[in-house]
Specification:
By secondary structure, the protein is of the alpha+beta class. The chain folds into 2 domains: 159 residues, 2-Layer Sandwich (D-amino Acid Aminotransferase, Chain A, domain 1); 167 residues, D-amino Acid Aminotransferase, Chain A, domain 2. Helices cover 23% and strands 30% of the residues. It is built from 8 helices and 18 strands. Strands 1, 2, 3, 4, 5, 6, 7, 8 and 18 form a 9-stranded mixed beta sheet that branches. Strands 9, 10, 11, 12, 13, 14, 15, 16 and 17 form a 9-stranded mixed beta sheet that branches. The protein is globular and about 60 Å long. The protein starts with a strand and ends with a strand. 44% of the residues are buried. The model has no long low-confidence stretch (mean pLDDT 96). Pfam families: Aminotran_4.
Length: 354
């Protein structure tokens, strides 16, 4: 495996105040970069000062968008050391996303080595404030300077780091979600399961409309009938319906969230039944009205567990549990974050020390 070259910055930046980070606004001193050419494979893995890339105006990513990314976090433990949460899952998902976009695979061992080496290099950037973490953003894009529409043969893989606070200003307080009935995010056979930039580009219009009207996120429905609930803009969704937890099945259109997978495993370890299946919007809205839907929450790396207090359409509001964070969502939030931050023992073996 190629050795990672490290070139440290001569000008370390001033760190932001950890009480005022918001999400994805600040970046650390260094980044990981590695290049790919079809006949050479991956070469020159390096940690260098955080700086702009130079790419051709004809670079394929700027025209046809072959790009995939990941999102995970480094957590500061009470003893001051740092750990990651299920990084192997992000590595595997990035390679699945890359396969869909004809981008090259990355050796999982080298990927893990790059994550650990970069977080070690900038470990003093892992914040220690409550609910603060170092968000890790690996991404891979095609740089071929060619306008022909073909599978890429030149790529860059990079990892950048951003100290972050909660994604939603509401934190663990309930958010409002707008049920999007005009735009759609994904269809079967498309790219919904892949974490590719294009999925997010197509979601911006609906997201902006929802935000302008006071909503935290949109709820995406299936792209064909607009009958089934799929996921949030940047997070998966779950419902507590009577004594079960129900979440949309992974049928190619929904991103297979690592938080979703972890929550399902955690719920099952508590002997709570989880159903992964088709969920109609009708079932949810009727269930909210008659009280069968007792709780709803979003889950994701950025969102953690965010209770949902209200769903709305253009003309109707559906309030859940008196717009209070439900007990199961709160229990999950605490169990998950205690494990991620190393405040409890990791009986699942999910954490990796940096
Ligand atoms: N769904 C979408 C569209 C997302 O962007 C994310 C965030 O990564 C998720 C779900 C949740 O995935 P994870 O829990 O792996 O962060
Ligand atoms: C993440 O949770 O890592 C994401 O990529 C979601 C995005 C909305 C920030």
């Amino acid at each position: 495996m190629a050795e990672i070259r490290i070139e440290k910055t001569a000008h370390p930046k001033e760190k932001p105040d950890s009480g005022n980070l918001s999400f994805g606004k600040y970046f650390t001193d260094h980044m990981f970069v590695m290049n790919y050419e079809k006949d050479k494979g991956w070469f020159d893995p390096r940690i260098v000062p955080f700086a702009p890339f130079e790419i051709s105006p004809a670079a394929m990513v700027l025209h046809y968008a072959p790009e995939v990314f990941e999102g995970l976090k480094a957590y500061r433990r009470p003893d001051g050391s740092v750990q990651l949460f299920r990084p192997q899952e992000n590595i595997a998902r990035m390679n699945r996303s890359a396969e869909r976009m004809c981008l090259p695979q990355i050796d999982p061992e080298l990927f893990m080595e790059a994550l650990l080496a970069l977080v070690r290099t900038d470990s003093d950037w892992v914040p220690a404030g409550e609910d603060t973490t170092l968000y890790i953003r690996p991404f891979l894009f095609a740089t071929d300077p060619k306008l022909g529409v073909h599978a890429p043969s030149m790529c860059t893989f990079a990892i950048i780091l951003s100290p972050v606070g909660p994604y939603f200003p509401e934190g663990v307080n309930p958010v409002k979600i707008f049920i999007e009935k005009e735009d759609v995010r994904a269809v079967r056979g498309g790219t919904g399961f892949a974490k590719c930039g294009g999925n997010y580009a197509g979601s911006l219009r609906a997201g902006e409309r929802a935000e302008a009207n006071g909503f935290a996120q949109v709820l995406w429905l299936d792209g064909v009938e607009k009958k089934y609930v799929e996921e949030g803009g940047g997070m998966n969704i779950m419902f507590k319906i009577k004594d079960k937890v129900v979440t949309p099945a992974l049928l190619g259109t929904v991103l297979p969230g690592i938080t979703r997978k972890s929550v399902i495993e955690m719920l099952k370890s508590w002997n709570i039944e989880v159903e992964e299946r088709l969920v109609t919007l009708e079932e949810i809205l009727t269930g909210i009205k008659n009280g069968d839907v007792e709780e709803a929450w979003c889950c994701g790396t950025a969102a953690v567990i965010s209770p949902i207090g209200e769903f709305a359409t253009e003309d109707e509001q559906y309030t859940i549990g008196g717009f209070k964070s439900g007990p199961l969502a709160l229990k999950l939030y605490h169990a998950l974050t205690d494990l991620q931050f190393g405040r409890t023992e990791d009986s699942f073996g999910w954490t990796v020390r940096v």
